[in-house]
Write a structure and sequence with these properties.
Blueprint: E1 5-9, H1 11-14, H2 24-33, E2 38-42, H3 53-62, E3 66-72, H4 84-98, E4 105-109, H5 119-140, E5 143-147, H6 159-168, E6 175-176, H7 180-185, H8 190-196, E7 204-206, E8 208-209, E9 215-216, H9 225-234, E10 240-243, H10 248-252, H11 254-267
Parallel strand pairs: 1-2, 1-10, 2-3, 3-4, 4-5, 5-6, 7-10
Antiparallel strand pairs: 8-9
Helix pairs in contact: 4-5
Amino acid sequence: MAALRVGCQTYSWEMHGAAWTGTPDDILQAIADAGYAGVEFAASMIGPYYDRPQAFAEALAARGLELAAFAYASPHGFTDPAHREDELAGAERALHFAARFPQPLLALGGAASPTRDDCDAKLAQAIDFYREVARRGSDLGVDVLVHPHSHHGSLLESAEEYARLLDATADSGLGFNPDSGHIVRGGQDLLTCVQAHASRIRHVHVKDVRPDGEWAPLGGGVCDLPALFSFLRSLDYDGWIVAEEESQLAWRDPSEAIRVNRAYLRSIGL
């Protein structure tokens, strides 16, 4: 059985917005120093490397890291037809960047909107977007995944909403990127969700959340992560486990937050 590979997502820095003034290299170094094997880098954080994928590959290699996935999201949540062409152009750029790396994965953010008015039409718009990007990814040899979230405005939180999205994209090649924290924070049972869509899982995010919905460092919330990893091993899952951190500790010190998470994952055998 292949060992589960452990990577880190860059959201711990991205969530700071303009208050974060460091560089992509600073993030890579912090992730390497914390002991991760890979990184899932967000398009919004890649900076000057976006036009220099070979230089980014060299920056990864210099730190002993692999690109676990590339992530692309839109502030409009893929649900507004007025932004479809811009979002497709952004996804196309992200696909071409990801395609320059081994076993390329592109993780797309979840469908979102400021309101749930006309929710069915908005979800239909997002589903069409995901299908189109998956098609383009297939042409480039890039595996495309959807990463539902539970942030304000999410239209993908309940079991029924997950099922609608995944059923409607079953023939498209779109994979599923479950996130433990978002699943639980959105009101679902973690294992029930991943068991229901096991055949679509090709990349996994882990976060933890308290009963009040506040994010916690891994092991500090109610997500049964050991049970999740046991289930993934039963599937002979050979993809990445990517830790993503947005608790109060990450607001204070992103580098320390990801170190705490790596230490927890080591403590349970990862």
